[in-house]
Specification:
single chain; 248 residues; alpha/beta; Rossmann fold; 2 domains; 9 helices; 5 strands
């Protein structure tokens, strides 16, 4: 190829790269979209999700110091973030973050001072770990790590992973993880495991009446049913105080 053509080709590539860079600087959304697609292909977390988790955590931490010792806290993913705390029958603060894995929750929960003196913590996470390809045992280990960071004097309500309409391929992994969570909860003082089988049909999928349009998350009726199960667990928890609570 003549030198002039090589020069023109390089100039064209440089111009294209420059225009692409200018577009990303002018419209950052383009950069994040392209970057997330590449990261998804490589099996990595999306940058937009990480930024969402970071921003949401910063907002939550602003009010964290004002939470008292009798608090009920919620930590988990989107299944828990959408839960209306007003239906729980007790004052509660929702620190769940949509899209978060149990592994990243294990990295985050230690930043909340309230988690060290709360009366009760409700947990629900692991679905996003499975969706990202993690083994059920790895997700269960992450939840065990979360619970290890919570004082033994704090009651834990550990929720099973809820069923879904779609994602039949993950159904076996979800069932395996729920069995692992039962074991992890049994090994931890003051831990109450709450199965969500009443939300499922006979085949193990989410009841249509409880399903949002995406087939994964809960509808208003679904959240009402979930809130009733959590509220029942809290009432049982209140009726049988843990001996390590002392005079709390």
């Amino acid at each position: 190829m003549p030198a002039s053509r090589i020069t023109l080709a390089l100039a064209g590539l440089g111009l294209g790269a420059g225009l692409a860079l200018a577009a990303c600087l002018a419209w950052p959304g383009i950069y994040f979209e392209l970057s997330d697609r590449v990261r998804w292909r490589l099996g990595l977390d999306r940058m937009a999700q990480r930024q969402f988790e970071h921003t949401t955590t910063q907002v939550q931490l602003r009010g964290d110091p004002s939470i008292g010792p009798d608090a009920t806290l919620l930590f988990g993913d989107s299944h828990l973030q959408g839960l209306p705390t007003s239906d729980l029958g007790t004052a509660a603060t929702n620190f769940a973050i949509a899209g978060e894995t149990a592994a990243r929750l294990a990295q985050r929960i230690g930043r909340y001072a309230s988690a060290q003196h709360a009366r009760r913590i409700v947990l629900l996470a692991g679905t996003n770990d499975l969706s990202a390809g993690a083994a059920p045992s790895a997700a269960a280990d992450a939840m065990a790590d979360v619970m290890r960071q919570i004082p033994a004097s704090t009651d834990i309500v550990l929720l099973a992973l809820p069923p879904s309409v779609i994602g039949a391929a993950l159904r076996g992994a979800r069932d395996s993880l729920n069995l692992e969570l039962i074991k992890r909860c049994a090994d931890r003082p003051a831990c109450q495991f709450v199965p969500l089988v009443t939300l499922a049909r006979r085949d193990g999928s989410l009841q249509q009446a409880y399903a949002a349009a995406d087939g994964v998350h809960l509808s208003g009726a679904g959240y009402g049913a979930l809130a009733a199960l959590v509220a029942q667990a809290i009432r049982q928890n209140q009726a049988t105080p843990h001996p390590e609570h002392g005079a709390r």
